Amino acid sequence: MANTKAYAATAPDSGLAPYAIDRRELRADDVAIEIDYCGVCHSDLHTVENDWGGSKYPVIPGHEIVGRVTAVGPEVSHFKAGDLVGVGCMVDSCRSCSACDSGLEQYCIEGSTMTYGSLDRHDGSVTHGGYSERIVVSERFVVRVPEKLDPASAAPILCAGITTYSPLKHFKVGKGHKVGVLGMGGLGHMGVKFAKALGAEVTIFTRSEAKVAEAKKQGADHVIISTDKEQMKAAADSFDFLLDTIPVAHDLNPYLKCLKYDGTHILVGLLTPIEPALQAGLLVTKRRVVAGSLIGGMPETQEVLDFCAEHDITCDIEMLDIRNINEAYVRMKKGDVKYRFVIDMKTLKEG
Ligand code: NDP
Ligand code: ZN
């Protein structure tokens, strides 16, 4: 598995460039995957640029991976060569704590091993993600991609999809609920599709007038321009849930005012401190809740893929030649993507 072609960042300001890595020989429970497609998540950009601190260079990002199995270790029972499979944000966990036992590996008490930039629990090497030709992953962290789904548009389900599906399911969002989705990017546009499929009335909150028609096309019932104070005021006390995918610190208070009493603001986009400060009064006086949610566990990641196949849900993607990855990051920063770049890994093999 030596000399696997990949793209890596070597410093926060280096951009991404070709880089060769070694993939490990198969362990007994490992699945080897030839990668066909890999989605480009805003988290890739955060890690490349070290926005969250602690990035380990070289960084080879990518956690929306779809490909075909090429080989399996002797203890693998669920997959065989030729199967269409996916790998998301995690590749390992302790597998024995209460979270792992409940299929919530993302909340592993010892900390899960992320697809890139984590230390492998067995040999201490740094994990490398899907901007590469192939990957080797333990079977527990591999999911089956229904053949009915287009494999390229299915790739973002592995992160953008599960991250928005999981909290909607956890909070039992359904018929009769009014849901607002904040930010119409990779996660946001999937959030709209899932909330609609679950029966909710859905509003997109966007900064961008230009996205209004698009939001309706995605199935949103209403659109609110979040920078328009009058529109925000008119939405006061009307939402059961807000699913917040905005990737940078932003004022939560105007959004909290849009929640009914007992309403819940679910953060998925922000991992850094909330600034400006929350007005506690907005929570206390209406028993409002601010919650967070991280991707989803392995059983639920399989569930969301099957849900998408059943409900004909896929991501809206723009296919990307990996040689244009740095330009794609610039566009992602501007919010100028409809709505997910997916790398066609053929372009890495040719390049
Ligand atoms: P995108 O860049 O695709 O979309 C983010 C959207 O947020 C934009 O399209 C834009 O929508 C809005 N936005 C961007 N900048 C601002 C700003 N300054 N103020 C207000 N709104 C803004 O990102 P993704 O959807 O890929 O990811 C979103 C966030 O979720 C990232 O921070 C990512 O790291 C995180 N994430 C979290 C996960 C989890 O498990 N919790 C998993 C995966 C990702 P509009 O133009 O409509 O306003
Ligand atoms: Zn992601």
UniProtKB/TrEMBL annotation:
Record flagged with keyword Zinc: yes
Molecular function as annotated in GO: alcohol dehydrogenase (NADP+) activity; zinc ion binding
Keyword set includes Zinc: yes
InterPro entries: ADH-like_C, ADH-like_N, ADH_Zn_CS, CAD-like, ER, GroES-like_sf, NAD(P)-bd_dom_sf
Top-level taxon in the UniProt lineage: Bacteria
Keywords: Metal-binding, Oxidoreductase, Zinc
Gene3D superfamilies xrefs: Medium-chain alcohol dehydrogenases, catalytic domain, NAD(P)-binding Rossmann-like Domain
Enoyl reductase (ER) domain mapped to chain residues: 11-343
Family: Belongs to the zinc-containing alcohol dehydrogenase family.
PANTHER family for this protein: ALDEHYDE REDUCTASE
Protein name: Alcohol dehydrogenase GroES domain protein
